[in-house]
Design a protein that fits this description.
Blueprint (H helix, E strand, L loop, with lengths): L3 E5 L4 H12 L3 E6 L14 E4 L17 E4 L10 E3 L2 H21 L6 E4 L22 H18 L4 E6 L1 E3 L7 H8 L12 E2 L1 E3 H14 L5 E4 L4 E2 H12 L10 H18 L1 E3 L8 H8 L7 H5 L8 H14 L4
Parallel strand pairs: 1-2, 1-4, 2-3, 4-6, 6-7, 7-11, 8-10
Antiparallel strand pairs: 5-13, 9-12
Helix pairs in contact: 2-3, 4-6, 6-10
Length: 332
């Protein structure tokens, strides 16, 4: 009998990979997408599509069936424009991440036996050796919105939603273009890091993430949170694997942290004066981003390992696979 699955975020990088994997296993797939999302044309053949704005309460009223598994991946991760109102970005994170998660969870109450909610490591703050039950505050607007979404999920779980929350690291792999700029710099022999890049970073290869999701669907405990990250590695180690895949040599040059922090602080003072947010490259660059990008940041995966998880793809192979996709796509 086919497994019925409801999925949000299927037109994004991770959601697209998950949708393809579910279709390959023969699941009966229903995808919730934003009205007018052109990415819906690339969904697996046979997938049912429901258009809905999850930030609007009641948008799914009377439109859902019952499903064996529900995955909520849809998320607002970066500015949509290069300039926005001073508070607009934080409000957009909250509306599209926290409130949308609450509305979707409410719509799924009593309709599924397993609800997988995608949060983020950003919800748990930044630092070394973070565990799922640590209470340190998130430092970014995105992280705060995801922490609030987790709080909504906890409340819904207490009300009967069989939810498991996952906190993936920075996910990369075939299909992802957010690291393309990094790969291009490293092809030229340079690592655009804040400081020397010796800080460990919480990375996760998309193939390993999908393996972990399948395990958590089967064995994850309702109401629990799980980090999904690969073996710890420094940013420079990661860059070294990329350089090796290119067959190039990585220089020791980098942007001094103090210089970068000064530039960002100047930008923030200008924003405060203008009462507007400036988003270069449509990135949310601020002092918190400097901290996150230069601090030793590791998350414990003891809970995931205790369920029997084993990382199948090591970093050199993951990087080579990503580079191969960039080349096949004509991006490098």
């Amino acid at each position: 009998m086919k497994r019925s699955v409801l999925l949000t975020g299927a037109t994004g990088f991770i959601g697209g990979r998950l949708a393809a994997a579910l279709a390959a296993e023969g699941a009966e797939l229903t995808c919730v997408v934003k009205p007018g999302d052109k990415g819906a044309a690339g969904l697996p053949p046979g997938a049912k599509v429901i258009e809905a704005d999850l930030a609007r309460k009641g948008s799914l009223l009377g439109r859902l069936s019952s499903y064996d598994t529900v995955y909520h991946l849809a998320s607002f991760t970066r500015p949509l424009s290069y300039l926005c109102g001073y508070r607009a970005l934080e409000e957009a994170y909250f509306r599209n991440n926290a409130e949308a998660a609450r509305h979707f969870g409410e719509a799924c109450l009593g309709r599924t036996g397993r609800f997988i909610f995608f949060s983020s490591i950003a919800a748990a703050g930044v630092g070394a050796g973070i565990r799922e039950d640590d209470t340190r505050p998130p430092i970014t607007a995105y992280g705060r919105s995801k922490r609030r979404a987790e709080e909504f999920m906890d409340a819904l779980c207490a009300g009967g939603l069989p939810a498991v929350t996952v906190r993936p690291g920075t996910v990369y792999g075939p299909g992802n273009t957010s690291m393309l700029v990094l790969f291009r710099f490293i092809r030229l022999g340079h690592l655009p890091s804040i400081g020397p890049g010796r800080n460990r970073v919480p990375l996760c290869y998309v193939g390993n993430l999908l393996d972990a999701l399948e395990l958590l669907r089967e064995k994850g405990r309702t109401g629990e949170k799980y980090f999904i990250v690969d073996e710890p590695a420094s940013l420079r180690e990661f860059a070294g694997h990329i350089a090796a895949a290119f067959g190039t040599r990585l220089s020791g040059l980098y942007v001094p942290k103090g210089l970068f922090a000064f530039g960002i602080r100047t930008k923030e003072l200008a924003e405060a004066a203008l009462r507007a947010r400036i988003n270069p490259f449509r990135m949310d660059l601020n002092s918190a981003a400097v901290t996150a990008g230069s601090t030793d940041w590791t998350c414990s995966r003891e809970k995931l390992l205790a369920l029997g998880f084993r990382q199948r793809t090591a970093m050199p192979e993951a990087v080579a696979s990503t580079l191969r996709w960039y080349r096949e796509a004509g991006l490098l």
